[in-house]
Amino acid sequence: MADSLSERDARFIWHPYTQHQNFNALIPIVKGEGALLFDEEGNSYIDAISSWWVNLHGHGHPYIAERIYKQALALEQVIFTHFTHEPAVQLAERLLKILPGHLSRIFYSDNGSTAVEVALKMAIQFWQNKDQPKRNKILAFEHAYHGDTFGAMSVSARGLFTHSFQDFLFDVVFIETPNSENLEKIKSIIRSQEGQIAAFIYEPLLQAAGGMLMYEAAFMNDLLSFVQEENILCIADEVLTGFGRTGGLFASASLSPSPDIICLSKGLTGGSMALGVTACKQLVFDAFLSEDRTKTFFHGHSFTANPLACTAALASLDLLEEHSCGKQIQWIHEQHQDFIERDLSQSDTGLFVNTRILGTILAFELNTGRNEYTNQVSTLIMNQALREGIYLRPLGNTVYLMPPYCITASQLEKLYQFILTIPDFIRKS
User: Fold this and answer.
1) Is 145 a catalytic residue?
2) Out of 17, 167, 292, 428, which one is annotated catalytic?
3) Minimal CA–CA distance to 317: which of 47, 96, 10, 43?
4) Catalytic-labelled residue, pool 266, 400, 405, 416
5) Mind listing the pLDDT tens digit for each residue in 103-124?
6) Backbone angles phi, psi at 418, to 5 degrees
7) DSSP-based three-state secondary structure for 332
8) Torsion angle, CA of 372/373/377/380, rounded to 10 degrees?
9) The pTM is what?
């Protein structure tokens, strides 16, 4: 008898964020359709977190699949140095029309971490090219997460994910997210750096991997204005927050002033293919124009501007710009609000705390002790949810929903009803 897919996987594959010692067999997924994933036995699972926050329009979307198929018959890949192609140019044109602020250039890479790496390298070399090499520090938020490559780790919160590499990460000036009590202190920290900060990188409105931490736009606007007055480049990491997740098309559109650089990935292709984008203002690009070849931006990837990925992104934008998609995003937000007011706010268990909503994202903490990524309550909830045909992946004590925009009313209600059962099975565990 042939080995199962799970057995073959266990023999050869190393999975991300996974401790394989005594690890349970993985579920073989053979099909996706809409908000559902199907295993080899025909069981379905509601993808309540959009497959790590990437899927916008649902799995196996026929329009995106058809566009990729047609492009594959014409051109699947070409080196993006001496050549260009229609999908890359068209995508750049469309993105620059809808991105917040006055951005003018698109640099392609292949995922969120590399989009951030590109942004950091742009910012640091920007000041070197302008003969200000002492401006080489990066400003970032505490609890940040920007990716798992070394530059992205450096500007992310130090902790479990970065501990083994601590000695290899560059120094960063970390600050709290701004509020009425700490804003002046933050400004004082920035002033103390005396013109050494090259750029400020931030996740606008939402620190997702940090625990779905949400912060207010008003205080961030004040901070951004101050930072730009200090002649510091602003980098918005919209890898997660872009393409409707926070309600608006981009979270940065809710902030003022606009960033000098924006990083995109995840929902960029609707979750169908890997693609990263770093968009910048003309002033950043101009600093690299020179007869001196050492001022060139020496960065690239083998699959830069892959035609299939760019085509998938164009197809996703087509769907995103349909009126029905905007209505669906608003509907999900309203359903989250109704659920909180109707059910969660009425719960007298004391288990659900700090309930919050931003766009299509609903999050809360479970009052079960210290909120750590390795907290076993997350595994307990994930396994119980799988048994009930739902895929959730809590961040420690933080439980959240981030469904694809195509989720149905009955599917969303099933997620809500599962949440309400959490107190019972936690007590029994």
Assistant:
1) yes
2) 17
3) 96
4) 266
5) 999 999 999 999 999 999 999 9
6) -65, -45
7) helix
8) -170
9) 0.96
Number of C-alpha atoms within 13 angstroms, CB side, residue 413? 3
Q: What angle do CA 175, 178, 180 make, to 5 degrees?
A: 135
Contact 356, 363 (CB under 8 A): yes
pLDDT bracket for residue 429 (50, 70, 90): confident
- How many CB atoms within 10 Å of residue 314? 20
- How much of the chain, in percent, has pLDDT values that exceed 90? 90
Cis bond upstream, residue 16 (ω within 30): no
Q: What is the pLDDT of residues 287-301, one digit of tens each?
A: 999 999 999 999 999
Q: 267-325: per-residue pLDDT in tens?
A: 999 999 999 999 999 999 999 999 999 999 999 999 999 999 999 999 999 999 999 99
Q: Which of 47, 108, 110, 145 is catalytic?
A: 145
CA–CA distance, 416 with 148 (Å, rounded to integer): 32
To the query of whether residue 237 is one of the catalytic residues in this protein, the response is yes
> What phi and psi values does residue 88 have, to the nearest 5 degrees?
-65, -45
CB 312 within 8 A of CB 273: yes
Question: How high does pLDDT run on average in the chain?
Answer: 95
Q: Three-state DSSP class for 70?
A: helix
Neighbours of 88 (CB within 10 A): 23
pLDDT at 239: 98
Residue in this structure with the two tokens 């085509």, named with its chain if needed: 311
* The one catalytic residue among 110, 237, 400, 416: 237
CB 16 within 8 Å of CB 22: no
Q: DSSP string covering 158-210, please?
A: PSTTTGGGGGGSPPEEEEPPP-TTTHHHHHHHHHTTTT-EEEEEE-SSEESTT
Does residue 210 register a pLDDT over 80?
A: yes
Laid out side by side, the sheet with 36-39 consists of: 29-33, 36-39, 44-47, 390-391
